[in-house]
C-alpha cells in the first residue's frame, strides 16, 4: 500500500489554508493544520488533524510537531497589520522557528507564502527582487523571512520556495479584504466607503493559487527561488468594485471617502513570467468567472439566508 504524503499547513485554519487542505485531501495527502485558533465552522474539514500552537513558542512547537512531514506550507502570521510588533514577530520570527525545526529533517518542500509588497517601490509589472526596500512593517517582516529561508537553501540546501502573492480572493474569505468586503456590503445594499479607486491591483482566484502551490511541491527546480504569483491582469480598484455591483445589482460605492495609505503604491502588479517558464503555470480563472463563483458562495452562506 502506497503511503500518503504528509502535509503540514501552518495557518491552516485561514482562507488559503482551508482551500489548500481541501485540495490536498482530494489528492490523497494526509493533512495537519497548525494554527493559534480552531477553524471556523464553515471552514472545518473532518479529515484534517488540527494542532493549536503559536509559532513564536519554539519549544512547544517542537513538542507539537512529533512526526516527519514531506511538505510544509507556511501561511501563518498575524492578520492585523496595525499591530506592528505582533505582525513583525509572527511573520518573521514565527517563520524562522518553523524552518529551524525542519532544517535537519527529511523535508521535500517548504513553501513560504510571501507578499508582493516585498518587492518594494519598483515599477510594475514588478519582477522578483531580493535586494529591495519594503515599504511597510509587514513587508519588511516577509522580506526578512524570505532572506533567512533563502540563506538556508544556500548554506544547507533547505528545500524552500518563496511565493510572493499579490491578492487572492474566493469563497469563504474573511471580511478583511477588498473583494470580500465589497461583496458583503453589496449583498446587504450598504454604502461602500473606498478610495478614488484609481490605483491598479492584481487579483488571483483561489483555485489558481492552490494549483501553483502543488506545482511547486512537485518541482525540485523551484527550490531556492522566488516567484511572483498573481493573475498578471491588472485592474483599477474602482473597476473591480463596479464589476461586483453590476453582478449583484446592489451596493453603494463612495469613491474618495477613504484616503490612500502613505505607503500605498498607485500601481502594484506582478510579472509572472518566471512562474510561467519554470513552473509551467498560468492562471486559468478570469476575474469575471472568479467574482461570480465567489458571489454565489457568499449568497449561499447561512449568514445571508
Overview of the structural elements:
The protein is an alpha/beta fold. It has two domains: 6-167 and 203-229, Rossmann fold, CATH 3.40.50; 170-202 and 232-269 and 284-304, UDP-galactose 4-epimerase, domain 1 (Alpha-Beta Complex), CATH 3.90.25.10. The chain is 37% helix and 17% strand. The chain contains nine helices and 13 strands. The strands form four sheets. Strands 3-2-1-4-5-6-11 form a seven-stranded parallel beta sheet, with helices on both faces. Strands 7-10 form a two-stranded parallel sheet. Helix 3 (84-102) links the parallel strand 4 (71-74) and strand 5. It is globular. The mean pLDDT is 94.
Give short descriptive properties of this protein.
alpha/beta, about 300 residues, Rossmann fold, UDP-galactose 4-epimerase, domain 1, 7-stranded parallel sheet
Structure, briefly:
This protein has two domains: 6-167 and 203-229, Rossmann fold (3-Layer(aba) Sandwich), CATH 3.40.50; 170-202 and 232-269 and 284-304, UDP-galactose 4-epimerase, domain 1. It is 37% helix and 17% strand.
CATH superfamily of the largest domain: NAD(P)-binding Rossmann-like Domain
What count of domains describes the coordinates? Answer: 2
Could you name the ranges where pLDDT drops below 50 across 5 or more consecutive residues? none
**Rg:** 19 Å
Which strand-content bin applies to the residues?
Answer: 15-25%
Do you know the CATH architecture of the largest domain? 3-Layer(aba) Sandwich
Mean pLDDT: 94
Major beta-sheet overview: 7 strands, parallel
The ordered string of helix (H) and strand (E) elements is EHEEHEHEHEEHEEEHEEHEHH
Give the strand order, joined by hyphens, for the main sheet.
3-2-1-4-5-6-11
Shape: globular
Category by helix and strand content: alpha/beta
Total beta-strand segments: 13
**How many alpha or pi helices?**
9
The top level CATH class name of the largest domain: Alpha Beta
The share of residues in helices is 25-40%
Amino acid at each position: 500500500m502506497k503511503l500518503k504524503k504528509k502535509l503540514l499547513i501552518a495557518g491552516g485554519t485561514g482562507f488559503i489554508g482551508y482551500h489548500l487542505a481541501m485540495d490536498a485531501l482530494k489528492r490523497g495527502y494526509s493533512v495537519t493544520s497548525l494554527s493559534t485558533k480552531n477553524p471556523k465552522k464553515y471552514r472545518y474539514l473532518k479529515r484534517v488533524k488540527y494542532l493549536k500552537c503559536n509559532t513564536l513558542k519554539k519549544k512547544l512547537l517542537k513538542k507539537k510537531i512529533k512526526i516527519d512531514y514531506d511538505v510544509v506550507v507556511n501561511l501563518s502570521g498575524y492578520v492585523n497589520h496595525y499591530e506592528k510588533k505582533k505582525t513583525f514577530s509572527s511573520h518573521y520570527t514565527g517563520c524562522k522557528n518553523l524552518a529551524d525545526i525542519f532544517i535537519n529533517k527529511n523535508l521535500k518542500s517548504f513553501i513560504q507564502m510571501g507578499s508582493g509588497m516585498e518587492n518594494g517601490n519598483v515599477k510594475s509589472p514588478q519582477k522578483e527582487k531580493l535586494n529591495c526596500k519594503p515599504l511597510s512593517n509587514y513587508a519588511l517582516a516577509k522580506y526578512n523571512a524570505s532572506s533567512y529561508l533563502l540563506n538556508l537553501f544556500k548554506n544547507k540546501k533547505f528545500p524552500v520556495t518563496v511565493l510572493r502573492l499579490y491578492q487572492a480572493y474566493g469563497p469563504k474569505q474573511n471580511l478583511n479584504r477588498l473583494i470580500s468586503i465589497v461583496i458583503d456590503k453589496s449583498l446587504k445594499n450598504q454604502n461602500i466607503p473606498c478610495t478614488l479607486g484609481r490605483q491598479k491591483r492584481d487579483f488571483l482566484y483561489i483555485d489558481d493559487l492552490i494549483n501553483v502551490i502543488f506545482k511547486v511541491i512537485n518541482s525540485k527546480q523551484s527550490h531556492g527561488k522566488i516567484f511572483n504569483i498573481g493573475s498578471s491582469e491588472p485592474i483599477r480598484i474602482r473597476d473591480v468594485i463596479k464589476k461586483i455591483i453590476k453582478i449583484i445589482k446592489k451596493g453603494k460605492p463612495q469613491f474618495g471617502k477613504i484616503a490612500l495609505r502613505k505607503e500605498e503604491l498607485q500601481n502594484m502588479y506582478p510579472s509572472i513570467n518566471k512562474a510561467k517558464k519554470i513552473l509551467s503555470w498560468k492562471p486559468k480563472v478570469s476575474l469575471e468567472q472568479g467574482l461570480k463563483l465567489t458571489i454565489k458562495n457568499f449568497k449561499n452562506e447561512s449568514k445571508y439566508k
